[in-house]
Amino acid sequence: MASSMSEDQFLCSICLGVFTNPATIPCGHTFCKPCLEAYWNTRGDPAICALCKTSFTPTPNIQVNIVLRGLVESFKGASGGDEAVDQPTVAPGEVSCDVCIGDRMPKAVKTCLVCLSSYCLEHARVHNARFSRHQLVRPLANLEERMCPTHNRLLELYCRTDKTMLCVACDAHQAPAHQVVSMQVEFLAQKAQLAKDQTVVKEKLKATRNEAEKLNSSVLLCENKAARQIEFVNEFRLALVSKVGLIYDRYNTEASRRVDELVRTASHWNRALEEDITALMSRVFALERVIGSSDSFELLNNLPSLPPAPLDGIRGQCSVNIPTDLLGNLVEHFMQNIAKLPKMGYLTTNGNAGSEIALVKEFTVEVTPDPSTAHPSLLFRRGSHGCEIRVDRSKMARKFPLSAQRFTQVPCVLATQGFSSHRAYWEVEVEDWVGNGSDVWFIGVATESSMTSRGVSLTPEKGFWVLVHREGRLWPTPATNPTAIVTQMRKAHVGVYFDGRKRLVSFYDIHLGHHLYTYNHVPTNERLFPVFSPDFFCSAFKPANHAMIVRTHTATNHQRGR
């Protein structure tokens, strides 16, 4: 009889081995009694069937099926018994086999999402032989969390409308408008979205780090700027101390000289006064003697012998005073020099404008010529030091759309940046390759309304505050000041500083570190733009491709609008 029975008829659905003390529960399924007790102890209340998931309340009192046990023993005797298989023991943090019992629990290699159990290597082999259609995955812990609390079934669906996980029974009660997909589909979609979010977060992290670096750089720039300003103030203090010392030395020397002269004069007149005092005393004594005589003959006889009468007035009238007029003149001269310091650039002890240039460079801005305002003969090329502006007379016949913003009579161009109440600094380098210094060019600032097709008049009244190069020299606007401020200049490196708050435009010789010229009382009712003209008298009759380059230098760390 035993030979006609198969092993599958005597396998426990929990341990997947041949029954040991088989016990049948009310639903009709049979398991090893030790396996069933261990399964229920692990699951807790209520007790459920490991195969059909039927729950029992209260927990049934299970007994060994004596008839079935006899058949199992007969089968074991005929088949020669079970063979033991060595398996790895579960380690901390790993999932153990739910079927095996004993002190040394083997490690699970698979978890069945249908049976909701984890199996070791041996039990997984038996499970696959009997339940080939069940879905096996990597070992999972806490399978109870994957069960629907309402229907006690596996959560394998996801509702995108409610953003909740569902079982198949929950899906049957969902509204038709709800979008329900499998958990695997939602898993892949969410994983892709999270990957995009990760990319965005990384980019934001990079941008935030860049901002932090910029902030640290700004702090460092502020510290350096403060240090330079402290150095400048100290130099200014030393200059003032030096000038006060000069006033002291001049006053001390001149006052001492005047006092010595007054003392010598007073000594001279003092001797003269002493002589007068002696003569007057002699006459007083003689007069007293004659007046005291009672003899008329004696009085009249002694009259010719009396000392001569003194002259009218007092000889040697003089006064000795501290030369306050000298002190007042020196103080007034000192105050006038102090008032001139910011305008004339006398900001260091040696009289140059080096510290002033260092200060105004803090307001360096990027200056870019605006092609929409450029004369047709001007060509532009961006380089590592800024923008080069060349004059090409062969391009004078180029046709451009006429507009109120374009210079048409004079090779000029304005910058794209305009300023009114801000402070701004930029540098221009001009090199005359012809070398004879005969070319005329100018740099500075101009109003937007200064552009006209009828020509350009380089005067503040017409909206130009510039320095003009002609005859090898630099000149301020001719109508303003006919005196050249720099002579024999064939290569220029000029810094231009605009201060809208103080309403001034200053020019500096960068090579020599000198202040060149300052226009004061510059109106700021309209914006002023940097203006460049590499050849003021450009003509088609001059040689083509005039070799003059204007470079506008830009700063890597510039500060606008302060």
From TrEMBL:
The highest taxon in the source lineage is Eukaryota
Q: Which residues form the B box-type domain?
A: 143-183
GO BP term (any one): innate immune response
- Keywords (A to Z) from UniProt: Immunity, Innate immunity, Metal-binding, Zinc, Zinc-finger
The entry's cellular-component GO terms read:
cytoplasm
MF-aspect GO terms: zinc ion binding
* Transmembrane portions of the chain: none
* Residue span(s) of domain B30.2/SPRY: 347-550
Q: Domain named RING-type: which ranges?
A: 12-53
Query: Does the UniProt entry include the keyword ATP-binding?
Result: no
The reply to whether Transmembrane figures as a keyword in the UniProt entry is no
Under PANTHER family, the record lists: B-BOX DOMAIN CONTAINING, BLOODTHIRSTY-RELATED GENE FAMILY, MEMBER 1-RELATED
- State the name under which the record lists this protein: E3 ubiquitin-protein ligase TRIM17-like
Species of origin: Salvelinus namaycush
